[in-house]
Fold each of these.
Amino acid sequence: MKISVKLFAYYRTGRFSAATKEYPPNTCVRDVLRHLQIPEKDLGIVLINGRFVELEQTLKEGDELSLFPMVGGG
Amino acid sequence: MTDDVSSAKDERYSRQTRFAELGKEGQKRLADARVAIVGCGALGSTQAELLARAGVGAIRVIDRDYVEVSNLQRQMLFDEQDVRDSCPKAIAAARRLKAINSTIKVESSVADLRPGNAYDLLGDVELIMDGTDNFETRFLVNDLAVKRGIPWVYGAAVGSYGITMTIFPGQTCCLRCILPDPPGGVQPTCEIAGVLGPVTTAISALQSADALRILCGHAALIKPLLTTIDVWSGDLLQGEAPPRNPNCPVCGRKEFNYLEGQARTPISLCGRNAVQISERTTPIDLKALGKQLASVGEVKVNEFVLRAHIGEFDITVFPDARAIIKGTSDPVVARSIYAKYIGI
């Protein structure tokens, strides 16, 4: 299934800003993090189609997954 | 001193009171409001300026640092003279804010927010603005805010990216619902990844808009949203904030480790190869220390700060005995320098 993945802030470094990725059925958010090598400990917020979800949330065809780190500068 | 400008209160705020949703009633509430701004860098100085211009009656600016030339690109309240004077940011900010609006009360606190002073500095305000640059201080703010039920406005920025979310303790998620522990790994900092003025200004403008709504009595208008901006890629995104986490160490389990001082460590400053240390609880006489250090290095001292260049280290000491040791990121080395030149 095709998932539109959007990354924010420093998650983009060495990866991408937005890309359509192919994942097998029943892929959950945690699987995508593993695939993209984003440590769970660093993760701020996960949204699917603009709504907050947990890491166990299963994705479905056409979902837009957005991954945000919490940043500390100011 | 009262003159035509400082006494023209109605005219001063006329463009804001004509905005019906705020109105004269909102303006009155702003005049009675008391706010603390924690950290007066890029975010904090823009927040402070916007809130002072809007007529927030009492603003307390808390910052532990002094103005450096690399701040001028984005930190709106400061100028070259502040850099030449090694002026503490809280002092420079208060001076500028009073010049902008002499009718409000501005308190400056040249201090590191820590468990020992958090109640004094934040306990009497109705809103806390996040202008800090590290998670440890934010976790301390979050502890105090949840314990006292004070709303606070999280905001942060690095590179071209910024994020903000307003936290109403007991109603919305708190910062630790999202981040139970400080993020691991190497985090990008403003010193390493850089930071653009437009993103810090955009984030602090959004934070300040929420502040005005809260202080005017319109907190209910604020939706539980997280707003992110990337001023370089042009992405603006709002998403639903997470719900409260029943297992949150702070708003769920009521464990206030940062406020109780159990989590405190020396803070390595924002990638600057520097460590801050507060080993003493008693204040320090900067002039006396300056005389002492003059024999071992180059020393500049005024009533607010002492700066000494000794060997490979730059040591900055504040009257509350806090020191920033530049030239190392190792707390052990910093402690040793502190002990050697300042005394524990």
Amino acid sequence: MDFQTFLQQFVNAFSLGSLYALIAIGYTMVYGILRLINFAHGDIFMVGGYLAFYGVSAFLMPWWLAVIVAIALTAIFGVGLERVAYRPLRDSPRISIMISAIGASFLLENLAIVLFGARPKAFPVPEFFATNFVLGGVHIATVSLVIPVVTAVILAVLIWMVHSTRVGMAMRAVSTDVEAARLMAIDVNRIVSITFAIGSALAAIGGIMWALKYPRLEPLMGIMPGLKCFIAAVIGGIGSIGGAVLGGLLLGIIELMTVAFLPELTGYKDAFAFVLLIIVLLVKPTGLLGKNQGEKV
Amino acid sequence: MNTLKKSPMSRDAKLTLSAAIIGLILLFIFDQSFDRFTMQIFKLCAINIILALSLNLINGFTGLFSLGHAGFMAVGAYTCAILTMSPEQKEVNFILQPIVPWLAQVQIPFAPALLLGGMLAGFIGWVLGVITLRLRDDYLAIATLGFSEIIRVVLTNAQTVTNGSLGLKGLPRFTTMWWSWGMAILITVFLVLLIKSSYGRAFKAIRDNEIAAESMGINVLGLKVMSFTISSFLAGIAGGLLAHYLTTIDPKQFIFLKTFDILLIVVLGGVGSLTGSVVAAIVVTIAMEALRFLDGPLNFGFYATTGIPGLRMVFFSALLMIVVIYRQQGLMGKAEFSWDALSRIGLLPRRGAKAAKGGR
């Protein structure tokens, strides 16, 4: 493998990794607040993709408007989901709330099959994202460049928000101790709703990016990215935003680079994440950046 | 009922014995009278009972949230199928790449193959348990889920052993009614005895409070691994039965959705109730078939649809959520069937005064 091929693979891997990171942030924020694996996160991601699709194809919106509307609607949807499926169980045993999350995930998948149809849909990719350009002999699709930029911007905004705003401070408080936060007159339900709104908006952005990268929408498209991004969040240290980004990048790079160097392992690609997860959990159960309590959201 | 007379058997034992005899006679009648379609569903009920019980052992009684059941089933199903297939059938199946030589000529009867399938699943469960059972509940859920995905990916790619995504076709139809219900009854009895034994009490102690259990001298990790191993062994057995029930298996059948189906049964029946799992397995299996019409064309009188595939599963996933949110204990909670319970709700005459004074 010459340097140019390596660079080409690395660009692809980095772009996929940033996408994983974007979705992993949503997981990590929700987990940080509620200690809940939001199994439905991958399906919210799917909903975001479909909403953007219908915005463009059914309501004939310009793509930028469709994207904004889809993100907003998905955020509202995520808040609604938390209200219906998770809030009534907040004081129940953890297993119950986990089952509810799994149930929500399957309900969304099956509803999507009923409402959107099981047949895959082609996502209309705007011309701008479909173009390729060559940089130093490396072919880069515009979308592969847009994804890391979007992730970086969102990361910066979130870190600012968590550390420098009142809402962010409240989030950190709830994440550290719900009861104590309530005593400090923090409206826990409001903070949880805000967290879900942000997490779902991130999932929607991830879903739309994913659809731009792989322009094919299916009701079950969220399962694998959902699982992998949760794993990315665990690898990085769940609850830590920086960890989610690190885990996502690591996972994307390991996944694509292994396949690039050892093509005979291509079929096993989807298993890498899980093997990596088991290894990380055994060696450092808190994840790579898990110790960093200050980053907890 | 004359309780004054000294009887060699207690009332409960008599009732159990007569129920068993009636059950056997019923099974015999069903075996003779059911048509093929009804029989298929009836057999599936038994397989689902085994699956639900084994998942309940780990989730309900030991309090470990495992989501890897589909993986263990797949191991059992594939092991059993490959071991029982005739060499000719293997040649027909493995068209892309021939099967590895050391498996090509193997053919053993169903019973040992089923046992080996279960044992391999149990062994893998043991290894996985030793590795992952130190994790906390939600990490465990993801690790086991990940493991079942790994199994599926391996099955899809190990072309020379499992025939990859083509799957295995034309397996002999070994799973008769007696096999499926026989195993289901055997396993139910085994689990009832296990749960009533000191091991079962230890499992429940771990579920209720791990630290308290540990301080009572219970070997928490060892017992968790044991429960997990038994559960995976039983899932492997159910997988083997399922393979020879369907006669066709491929890796796609063992996706996470399969675990979800079993989880649905366990939650509806009551997490931590064997009785609940048995009843829910039968009800859900029949309901899954009976509600197939939901996927077809519907006519509400004022509004007709042309068939919405997937509506049936919407119903079941919504049902799961409703039960978890509004009735977490499911059908039975943690309660079990007993003859006393039947008397308490008035379906049986109460036990004689003498027995009641005995104070149970």
